[in-house]
Amino acid sequence: MGNFFRRLGDRFRNFMIGRYGTDSFGMFLVYALLVIIVISMFFRGGIVGTILNLLTWVIFIYTWFRILSRNYAKRSAENRWYLEKTAAIRKFFRIKKKQQSERKEYKYFKCPECGQQLRVPRGKGQIKITCRKCGRQFTGRT
């Protein structure tokens, strides 16, 4: 039985040779598809349910079209466009994730003058903080 699955996997790998596969935009489409499927469970009938059902099929077909496509240039251009449009959002969450992981060692302050985020070590008491961007000094408790 294991031999059957190994051969099946080999056939699938051979089929996928030269195809685009998945990327960041493709994964976004899959997650969006899952969210729309969950939302559509609450709107089974009526016009909203029909629209969500149609949207589900459109995203599903487009996602598989991208995965099975052999046009690398077009698919990578679509992925670059997606990454450019979501760069600010991804940067925001990356910064918040870093701040969350460093919350025990550092405290973050925002400069009242320019809004620059400043990181200072915790446990130093009340200290004078100098902004690296504008040079303004203010006090903060760590």
Tags for this entry?
142 residues; alpha+beta; 2 domains; 5 helices; elongated; 14% strand
Describe the structure.
The protein is of the alpha+beta class. It folds into two domains: 84 residues; 49 residues, no CATH class. Helix content is 61%, strand content 14%. The protein has five helices and four strands, in the order αααααββββ. A two-stranded antiparallel ribbon has the order 1-2. A two-stranded antiparallel ribbon has the order 3-4. A hairpin with a 6-residue loop joins β3 and β4. The longest helix is centred in the middle third of the chain and has 23 residues. The radius of gyration is 24 Å and the shape is elongated.
Strand order, main sheet: write it out.
1-2
Query: What overall form do the CA principal axes indicate?
Result: elongated
Helix content: 55-70%
What would the average pLDDT be, to the nearest integer? Answer: 92
Largest sheet: 2 strands, antiparallel
Task: Please report the total strand number as a whole number.
Answer: 4
Count the helices. How many? 5
How many domains in all? Answer: 2
Q: How far do the termini sit from each other?
A: 63 Å
What structural class is derived from the secondary structure elements? alpha+beta
The rounded Rg comes to 24 Å
> In percent, how much strand structure appears in the residues?
5-15%
* Pattern of helices and strands: HHHHHEEEE
Low-confidence stretches: none
